[in-house]
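Hey, can you fold this one?
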Amino acid sequence: MEMKVVVIGGANIDISAKCSYKMIPKDSNIGIVDFGLGGVGRNIAEGLSLFGAEVSLLTAVGSDSFGRVVIDNADEQGIKLLEEPFAESKTGVFAYIADSDGTFVTGVNDMKIISKITPEIIKKHINSLYFTDYVVFEANLSEATISEICSYDFKFIADCASTVKCERLKPVLNRLMLLKANLNEARTLTKKTSLNDVIKELVKKGLKKGIITLGGDGASLFSSENNKIKFYKMANLPNDNLIDTCGCGDAELSGFMIALMRGRSDSDSLFMGQCASYLNSQSLLSVNRKMSFTKLKETVELFDKKIKIEESMI
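Sure. Predicted structure:
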């Protein structure tokens, strides 16, 4: 039986520029410029759909040509869009630069349209949320909208989205079944530095489970129960085919969620999340459309005996 997920968040056009050689700042660099789809919410929705979940997306797009691209892609992927395009509004755009090794350098986002997802829009679509297994949302939404979402009784999963926006999640940490953050976002949320202190502070604030990605050092997961914190950490998978890391955090969450939905353990879910991130990095697109649950399982089998997950108590 397919798990049903409603994702609430941004959908935009991505313009990616990857340098062919080591980037020279303040210069015109030779490279490849591409055009695709992005947005934290939309990326997570597409990843979940590719992995086999039944997904609805509550987002905001304009009645422009970029909005049409988002709508057509959702139709192609079998993702149900809950809200009609907003007339006379511009669909969000994210432009970013990746270095020759695929690592993210910098980006500029123009996503003002996400402010159209108001508390009133949440109330308008509340019936769709009642018939879902999980509700995923991101911190690019306004504090008022996040508060409205979390005023209901659903299984909530949240993505920090950025260090600038993540503090909007502070008031609702105790309402989440899972938070996904990178280390910088988690440090911003807690005002702590070391990973252990960050995790302890998040638990103190009421968070029960969290994924914290660690960049080149891999990813970690913690789970709190009965005043005890279980901690897992694993390295990144060896990746000779890395093209671009943008969107890999969103893929990590999609992979983790699909494992969770299928009853996998925390450690197995972390492993599957890392495998999803690995697959996603092998494409210039924010979501690698060649991903599938079959390929995800094959990747898990490929690295199963090669990568060890560290387990400990904090």
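Residues 266-280 form the longest helix (15 residues). Let me know if you want another pass with a different chain boundary.
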